[in-house]
Design a protein that fits this description.
heterodimer, A: mainly alpha, MetI-like fold, 2 domains, 13 helices, B: mainly alpha, 1% strand
């Protein structure tokens, strides 16, 4: 093909790679900057010396962060909430998705409508809050696990997957051999749906890990607070400060610099674990979007 | 196991009777009974999900009635005084109504206009890259910000935009500005900060769905186009974009339907006293009035107003789309 080597085609290719490199840097640099800033001396940072590499490695920020109890309480809580929440969510979502994937179930359409309405219409913040209060879920860690354990969106993704991956003939054959629904679900469907378990589990886990609104509304006790609430105190409410020097006296400017340093460190400590694991799981996340995009 | 065999044996018995010359249509009751006999255990699998949705999604809908009451927790749903539309008229006539509505709409329309085309453009661009390894790296990096929590995003914005110490200040110094303004203290900059950080965070992730649509396009179309002498642009213009069109329309409907749903969390976290005149939106207002000032009924009314507008928008956009393009949600 001669046209592909024409000048305009070459220019287009150059522009393509140029623009994509700009996008790459634009997407990565803010994250990269947080990491290098967290290792740099706050004065070097404030004087505009930190651009591409950490300057004058300074680890006091991390030292302080590791001693800061609320962050680690939050970390522990979030790990617990994430593990339990994800398991509960899978136990509720996957069986429902399987039932909904069966076309021979008579009430399927009715139940679909039942599940779909809340996607577009809801009671709102206040009635939900009153409900939680009446159910004694205020300041109860269960409030972060139970109400959000079923997402219709995730159920639809799982249902679409099961519909295309568990052939109806398989069920027919099993039924003729005398297999019931429950046994079929546990011995045939579950082993065949490991991929979708991973996808939904990851979605739910990231959702719980990052969620902060429910805890803001419903959790008051310090010992139940998840990571994101502790982070909010550090990052937004400026609740944490740090003194350096033997005299313990620091100027306002220095205070601000150290506070910024602590912010960088806490972002790294809380976010980098996910960032590191994520590239290995990326194909599962992307798979979820692909499955979800097929209209079920 | 046992109920499966029983059901199939019953089927065999009843088949000759029902299958004379005219097949008698079974009544609803009979069909339901048969369904429960055969698939009763399937319904068991559904029970937890149905319970969760019924309790946590449907019960609060019933709570909407407090928007028409002067609800006090001490008197409860049943004994609270009915006030009809008083809560709504109070909201519509309050001096904040105009500002809040304007802020909500401007932030979300800005988000839609700036945020909607970006993933499409990125997907088209990614689709042009033939170097698979590089493409993979590009995808991984651009998806990454999606996994950062809202709290951390807001924290990054705050610390970057600090006019004394942040990255923004350093860049301003490079350009010779000694004392840059505080962007988060400027009401007129609030929506841009909100929207552009959102574009940074979500463009990569949102492009996946378009990439999926592009990968579904028949390869022979490109081959035919090449034979006909089409260049890169022609292929994008006449194959890629039409191929993505149904996905584009569906997402546009969904986005337009959620126009009044500006994400509460990020706005709330970025709000401060200086930018409040531009950053107070319906959901933050509902939160403050309801949970901080304990005006349950008033804030439930404001929330209901928001839900109703959203619902109307969704239906309108969906109807328009169905007539114009034959693509719709239902």
């Amino acid at each position: 093909m001669k046209q592909t080597h024409s000048l305009s085609e070459k220019l287009g290719l150059f522009a393509l790679y140029f623009v994509s490199v700009v996008i790459l840097i634009g997407a990565a640099y803010p994250i990269y900057f947080v990491v290098i800033a967290s290792f740099s001396d706050p004065n070097a940072l404030a004087n505009g010396k930190v651009w591409f590499f950490p300057q004058e490695i300074f680890l006091d920020g991390y030292k302080k962060i590791f001693e800061y109890e609320p962050l680690w309480t939050g970390y522990r809580n979030t790990i617990i909430y994430t593990i339990i929440g994800t398991l509960v969510s899978l136990c509720v979502t996957i069986p429902a998705a399987y039932a909904m994937s069966r076309r021979d179930m008579m009430l399927r359409n009715g139940i679909t409508i039942f599940f779909t309405i809340p996607m577009f219409f809801g009671g709102g913040m206040i009635p939900t809050y009153i409900l939680m209060k009446n159910l004694n879920l205020i300041d109860n860690p269960l409030v972060l696990i139970i109400p959000g354990c079923f997402s219709v969106y995730n159920m639809i993704i799982a249902r679409t997957f099961l519909q295309s991956n568990i052939p109806e003939a398989l069920w027919d054959a099993a039924r003729i051999d005398g297999c019931g629904n429950i046994r079929f679900f546990f011995t045939m469907v579950l082993p065949l749906s490991k991929a979708i378990l991973a996808v939904i589990g990851l979605y739910v886990a990231v959702g719980i890990w990052n969620s902060y609104f429910d805890a803001l509304l419903y959790i008051q006790s310090k010992e139940y607070r998840p990571l994101q609430i502790a982070l909010r105190d550090i990052l937004i409410a400026n609740s944490m400060s740090m003194r350096t020097g033997a005299s313990g006296q620091t100027t306002g400017m220095m205070q601000q610099r150290l506070r910024d340093l602590l912010k960088y460190c806490s972002i790294v400590v809380s976010t980098i674990p996910i960032m590191c694991v994520y590239p290995f799981l990326q194909k599962y996340f992307a798979k979820g979007v692909m499955i979800g995009s097929i209209k079920g | 196991m046992r109920d499966g065999t029983k059901a199939s044996r019953k089927d065999r018995q009843s088949a000759p009777q029902g299958g004379e010359y005219v097949i008698r249509k079974k009544t609803l009751g009979e069909r339901l009974a048969r369904d429960f006999r055969q698939n009763g255990t399937l319904y068991l699998l559904l029970i937890p999900a149905v319970l969760v949705v019924a309790i946590f999604s449907y019960v609060p809908m019933y709570g909407i009635i407090i928007a028409f009451q002067n609800f006090k927790p001490s008197t409860g749903f049943w004994n609270s005084e009915w006030v009809c539309m008083a809560n709504f008229t109070r909201f519509f006539s309050s001096h904040q109504f105009g500002t809040i509505l304007k802020n909500t709409l401007s932030i979300s329309i800005y988000s839609l206009v700036a945020g909607y085309p970006m993933p499409i453009i990125l997907a088209l661009l990614l689709n042009q890259i033939r170097h698979e390894k590089y493409k993979k790296v590009l995808q991984t990096i651009t998806y990454m910000p999606h996994f950062i929590s809202t709290v951390v995003i807001a924290g990054m914005i705050v610390v970057f935009l600090n006019p004394n110490t942040g990255l923004y200040a350093q860049i301003a110094h490079l350009f010779g500005v000694a004392k840059p303004v505080d962007p988060l203290g400027q009401p007129k900059l609030f929506s841009s900060i909100y929207v552009l950080s959102g574009v940074w965070q979500h463009t990569g992730w949102d492009s996946i769905i378009y990439l999926a649509a592009l990968s579904g396009i028949d390869v022979t179309l490109y081959e035919a186009a090449t034979v006909d002498g089409a260049n890169r642009w022609d292929k994008i213009r006449y194959i890629d974009i039409p191929g993505m069109a149904p996905t584009m329309i569906i997402l546009l409907i969904m986005n337009a339907g959620g126009i009044m749903n500006v994400g509460f969390e990020k706005v709330f976290l970025l709000q401060n006293n200086l930018n409040l005149s531009a950053s107070e939106i319906i959901s933050t207002y509902v939160y403050k009035m309801g949970l901080i000032h304990q005006q349950y009924s008033f804030s439930a009314a404001v929330g209901l107003f928001n839900t109703v507008i959203n619902f109307i928008l969704l239906i309108t956009v969906n109807t328009i789309s169905r007539h114009v393009s034959e693509t719709s949600l239902w």
